[in-house]
Structure formats: structure tokens, C-alpha cells
Amino acid sequence: MADDDMRADFMKMDAVLKGIRGTSRLFRPPYGEIDRRVFEFVRSKKYHVVGWSMDTNDWKYYEQSDYLGKVMEELGGRAKSKSIVLMHDRDEKSAEVLKEILELVIKTGYKATTVSKCLGINMKNK
Predict the structure, then answer these.
(1) N or C: which end of the chain has fewer CB within 10 A?
(2) Sequence ranges of the domains in the chain
(3) If DSSP codes are grouped into helix, strand and coil, which group holds residue 126?
């Protein structure tokens, strides 16, 4: 993607997100892929680039009746301290599954928190 197109796409995304939920300074690159040029531009706009350490692959199982079971199977026993788990927010089903996953995570002794807290980023006045 040309620099001008990348910048225009980023600024459009920034404006849309501000209109929906205010300012956020966290950026997850599409598919987790980012090159140095994009990384440096994103950082110049005062965003923190965030990846993930665990992928639920929830998108693969979305249409299956055992969606929760499949997502939990993907997670298995791989959760570690400060894991960032990737899930996709498609609709109410995603929120329902997330609630059940969070209940299980808490039962097993882990704590759910925000990405900014997990990474030690102070998001106030940013």
C-alpha cells in the first residue's frame, strides 16, 4: 500500500473510532501484520501497537453449534500471566461466549483486565 493510502486509511479509521467511542490509543494491526513504515506512522500518531499472545481462532468456529467448546479447546491450558487473547466481536454470540470464558478464567485463578493495564500503559490524558 502506498504511503498516502496508508495514511488516509489510518486517519479515516481514527475519525470513525473517535465518533463511536471517543479516543483510544491502542492499535491492533489487521491480521497482526505490520511493517516498520506503518509502525512508525502509527507511533507518530501517539498510538500503542498491540498484538496478541493467544488466538482463540473463534472466527473458524462461529457457525458451529459448539462454538464455546471449540474456542475453549483452542485456549486449552495455554493461558499464562499477561496473555492477550484475540477474539472477534461479531455480535451478541461473541459477547455471550466472552462472558463464559471470563467466568472460567476467573475460576482458574487468572484475572481479566484491560489491554492497557496488561501492558502497563497509562491511558489517562493520552
Answers:
(1) N
(2) 3-51, 54-115
(3) coil
